[in-house]
Inverse folding.
DNA sequence: TTTGGGCATTGGGGTGCAGT
DNA sequence: ACTGCACCCCAATGCCCAAA
């Protein structure tokens, strides 16, 4: 059949097939993603190539590669599907008045509730969903458009993520152990039992790195992602723990345990992050505005 | 040389629509 | 109502090629 320039993309599904195959660099994986058979994709891509009048993909070793022309078509396909994605999430956003926030357990506990209260006072009817995980997991989910916004501890960000620094809380070392002086050197903590957050946590990695570069080996006596659990253990005198300032200020005031001053300036960065192409969503804009207007970290 | 992963082809089944 | 057409899809199979 003669390709006709006035009707170049007759079949949306074919473009979708091509787009996913190019994205996955594989017919099989794309088929899996689209819940179609590999043969279906193969035929749909062929059909698209026929309509356009030139090949889009070529076989290289064990991978599928875009031809030069395929690259051009792919860039258009990308914007088509990005636009569709925006459409879908905008529709969802309007329909459900929902915002999904990914954050760490500690931030979820001590900071996020305050944020939600402010947000909802500005926009009643807003539905807020809070999810917790480690910073890197949250980023993955933001990248997949599962969450609108992340409030996380700073780590490596992908290029298409926007980050807004919102706080730089000092990490406070707390114990319930009368034997420990009010101020000690980092070296004095060698072998001292310390309760850390779970492996993979940015704060944990940071602390291990800070001790590591001073050549101090610490004794991890327990691990938990839950700040209240860690506090409970500290309270029982099981060991010391590091908390971002906002998480322990009240406990220190109430004398549940005490802070041990360290010479090192230990701190983490808290950022609000979101995908670049979601910056214009109302819920995202409102959220960012709220964060710019108020200091939730006191 | 064998094996297995990955794409293309084949043959078959289905739907919806338009013209008769 | 019947028929042809364009499109949707699948399982099975064939074929190629790289790694073992």
């Amino acid at each position: 059949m003669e390709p006709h320039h006035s009707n170049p993309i007759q079949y949306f599904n074919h473009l979708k097939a091509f787009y996913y195959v190019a994205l996955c660099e594989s017919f099989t994986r794309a088929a899996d993603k689209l819940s179609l058979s590999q043969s279906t994709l193969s035929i749909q891509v062929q059909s698209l190539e026929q309509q356009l009048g030139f090949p889009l993909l070529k076989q290289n070793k064990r991978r599928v590669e875009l031809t030069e022309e395929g690259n051009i078509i792919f860039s258009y396909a990308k914007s088509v599907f990005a636009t569709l994605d925006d459409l879908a999430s905008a529709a969802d956003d309007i329909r459900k008045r929902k915002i999904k926030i990914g954050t760490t357990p500690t931030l979820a506990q001590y900071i996020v509730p305050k944020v939600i209260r402010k947000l909802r006072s500005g926009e009643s009817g807003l539905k807020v969903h809070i999810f917790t995980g480690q910073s890197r997991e949250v980023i993955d989910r933001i990248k997949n458009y599962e969450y609108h916004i992340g409030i996380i501890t700073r780590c490596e960000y992908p290029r298409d993520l926007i980050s807004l620094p919102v706080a730089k809380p000092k990490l406070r070392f707390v114990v319930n152990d009368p034997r420990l002086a009010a101020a000690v050197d980092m070296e004095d903590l060698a072998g001292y039992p310390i309760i850390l957050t779970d492996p993979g946590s940015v704060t944990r990695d940071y602390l291990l790195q800070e001790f590591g570069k001073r050549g101090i080996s610490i004794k991890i006596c327990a691990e938990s992602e839950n700040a209240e659990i860690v506090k409970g253990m500290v309270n029982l005198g099981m060991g010391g723990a590091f908390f971002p300032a906002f998480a322990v200020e009240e406990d220190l005031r109430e004398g549940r345990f005490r802070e041990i001053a360290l010479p090192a300036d230990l701190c983490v960065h808290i950022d609000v992050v979101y995908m670049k192409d979601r910056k214009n969503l109302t819920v995202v804009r409102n959220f960012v505005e709220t964060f710019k207007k108020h200091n939730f970290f006191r």
Notes: Residues 11, 13, 36-37, 39-40, 43-44, 47, 59, 61-62 of chain A lie near DNA strand C (CB under 10 Å from a C1'). Chain A has a mean pLDDT of 87.
